[in-house]
Every structure is written in C-alpha cells, then in structure tokens.
Amino acid sequence: MTLLLIALGAAVGAPARFLTDLVVAHYAGRHLPWGTLAVNVFGSGLAVFLVVAVADPSWSALLVTGFCGALTTYSTLAYETLRLVEEGRWQHAVWNMAANLAGGLGAGLLGFGLAHLITG
C-alpha cells in the first residue's frame, strides 16, 4: 500500500514540476533555470513542514516521499548546472547551485519553524 501511495503522490508531483517550469520560464525566460529553483525551494520547505506536521505514515508516504520527492529534482539541477558550465557560464553555474542549496535549506528551516508553531 505504501508503494501505491508514493506512486500516486509522484504522479501529481512530477507534472506539477514540469508545469511550474513552463510557467516560470514563460515569465522569467530560460537564461537561468528559475523553474527548477522554484520547485526545489518550495518543495524543500513543504517537505520539512510535512515531516514535522504529519504524523500518519501513509500521508507522509503520499505527500513527502511521493509528491515532494517528484516535485523537487536534483537530477535536473545537476543537468542544468552542467549545461551552464558547458556554455562557459561558470558564475551562473555556481550561483545556480548556491541558490538551490541555500534556498532549499532556508525554506526547510522556515517549514520546520512554521510546523512547530502550528503543531505546538
């Protein structure tokens, strides 16, 4: 049953990542991978919030492992960063990695704090 819940969450998370990237790229352009940054930062904050706030393992499997796991993407981050390096845009590549890591950690800390405020 847990595997099915993870698959269901991923079935929503992966298309959400794809659609978010399309929308963000439409408005911000493709000069930098803003869509990947958006889903990684948001997904990190949401995942940590849910880990703290949701006690039921079934809901955690669906929402954290399934949805957030498919929404966020390390593989796309790595690919896009390497593409920036191949284009000779080293500063953008370093900025991209730093922004994803710092943004994800910051969002995780915010999610942690918010969940503790809500749950006591």
From TrEMBL:
Membrane topology term: Multi-pass membrane protein
Q: Which keywords appear in this protein's UniProt record, sorted alphabetically?
A: Cell membrane, Ion channel, Ion transport, Membrane, Metal-binding, Sodium, Transmembrane, Transmembrane helix, Transport
Which reactions fall under this protein's catalytic activity? fluoride(in) = fluoride(out)
Activity regulation info: Na(+) is not transported, but it plays an essential structural role and its presence is essential for fluoride channel function.
Looking up InterPro entries in the UniProt record yields: FluC (IPR003691)
**Entry's localization field:** Cell membrane
Name of a matching Pfam family: CRCB
List of residues binding Na(+) = G69, T72
Q: The organism sits in which domain of life?
A: Bacteria
Q: Which residues cross the membrane?
A: 32-52, 59-77, 97-118
Summary of the function given for this chain in its UniProt record: Fluoride-specific ion channel. Important for reducing fluoride concentration in the cell, thus reducing its toxicity.
For this protein, the record's NCBIfam families field holds: crcB
What HAMAP family is this protein classified in? FluC
- Family statement drawn from the similarity comment of this UniProt entry: Belongs to the fluoride channel Fluc/FEX (TC 1.A.43) family.
Tell me what this protein is called.
Answer: Fluoride-specific ion channel FluC
Task: Report the gene name.
Answer: crcB
